Amino acid sequence: MEVMMLRHPHNYKKEEFEPMALALGFFDGVHKGHQQVMLSAKKTAEEKGWKSAVMTFDPHPSVVLGRKHRHIRHITPLEEKKRLIQEMGIDYLFIVRFTSDFAALEPQQFVDQFIIGLNARHVTAGFDYTYGRLGKGTMDTLMFHSRGEFTYTAVQKLAIDQEKVSSTKIRELLSEGLVRDASDLLGRPYRLHGTIIHGDKRGRKIGFPTANIEPADDYFLPMTGVYAVKIRVQDEWHEGVCNVGYRPTFKSPDEPVLSIEVHIFHYSGDIYGEEVEVDWFIRLRGEQKFNGIEELTAQIERDKQAAVQFFDSKRLDGKS
Ligand SMILES: Cc1cc2nc3c(=O)[nH]c(=O)nc-3n(C[C@H](O)[C@H](O)[C@H](O)COP(=O)(O)O)c2cc1C
Ligand SMILES: Nc1ncnc2c1ncn2[C@@H]1O[C@H](COP(=O)(O)OP(=O)(O)O)[C@@H](O)[C@H]1O
Questions:
Q1: For the chain, what are the domain ranges?
Q2: What fold, for 179-317?
Q3: I need a labelling partner for 12 at 20 to 30 A (CA). Which of 20, 65, 157, 264 fits?
């Protein structure tokens, strides 16, 4: 997949691109609904003998439009999004810098410069996609703005169990610790990339070494608590238990520092500095303040058994 960063104004000429079927959207999560939109573009590209492309934006439009918090946490920060879109077999990924100038483009200007101007012959987006200044362009105005230069598909809302699949819903589920439900909407377990950093060196002493993870990006983290996870270290996946939280047994609540740490089953070896991936499977319990190390380690032992049991039963289900 070729990744192209685009700014407004850009100097590309239409002739520099092969004809494309282009999927448009912010796509945070690359969830099942997003996947439908992208696969629809890919299918059109295959049918017509064109290239498939995805156009997304960075940063999130609400950062520039000032509607929400300045700092947004993502289900799939840009690098994660790139990886997932690449895995879908898309030929081109356009990442458009979402600036005030870009946001001020009239819908027709956006279409002229970023759709027709890139030689897109077909556009696919969710039915509620908007474009151009104040989001005035909608899937109903696209026909008019297309100037007959491309066709388009508006992909209908995807619902699972009568619930719309959306980034907002996935955030809601993650913030309640419901990582299993989130993975139903994502079509894969929720994943986080990060680097192993040093912690307080207490883990090994208490019999449960824990690899402390610094997230590679501003991920939307699941609710604090203890989870059964899989962690990829040096190209191999291992099962483990993860605590995400503030470690109230040892730390004062006055200076809360969030830590993410995984005790990896059947593993030994130093992995500081390694890049890892963590897949979240199920929340086992909330974080607690224990009266001392003995109580904590007894509980971690039970967490471990619960996680082992969870993965064993998953294997029996044949879902692993
Ligand atoms: C499965 C698991 C569950 C944990 N649960 C708690 C908890 O409920 N409360 C708490 O204060 N710390 C909890 N911890 C964090 C431990 O306090 C932490 O791993 C230990 O202090 C070692 O920290 P270090 O890696 O920085 O040395 C948990 C850790 C693991 C691996
Ligand atoms: N089974 C294991 N699970 C997690 N980390 C392990 C394991 N075995 C060895 N390690 C190593 O030990 C470190 C964790 O030990 P710990 O005493 O908790 O130190 P720290 O406080 O620096 O995390 C990990 O970063 C990793 O390098």
A1: 2-160, 179-317
A2: Elongation Factor Tu (Ef-tu); domain 3 (2.40.30)
A3: 65
As assigned by CATH, the class of the 2-160 domain is alpha beta
In tens, the pLDDT along 70-90 reads 678 999 999 999 999 999 999
The protein residue whose alpha carbon is closest to atom 15 in ligand 2 is 209
pLDDT given for residue 188 in this prediction: 98
pLDDT reported for residue 182: 97
- Is the whole model's pTM more than 0.90, yes or no? yes
Spacing, Cα 272 to ligand 2 middle (Å)? 8
Verify whether ligand 2 is closer than 6 Å to residue 145 (CB atom): no
* Phi and psi torsions of 266, nearest 5°: 50, 50
Q: What is the ipTM of this complex?
A: 0.97
Q: Measure the CA dihedral 165/46/125/175, to 10°.
A: 30
**Is the CB–ligand 1 distance for residue 212 below 6 Å?**
yes
- Does 200 contact ligand 2 (Cβ within 6 A)? yes
H or E element at residue 242: strand 236-245
CB 60 within 8 A of CB 72: yes
Closest ligand to C-alpha of residue 265 is: 2
pLDDT digits (tens, 9 = 90+) for 212-231: 999 999 999 999 999 999 99
Of 64, 78, 71, 66, nearest to 26 by C-alpha is 78
CA 60 to ligand 1 centroid distance, Å: 34
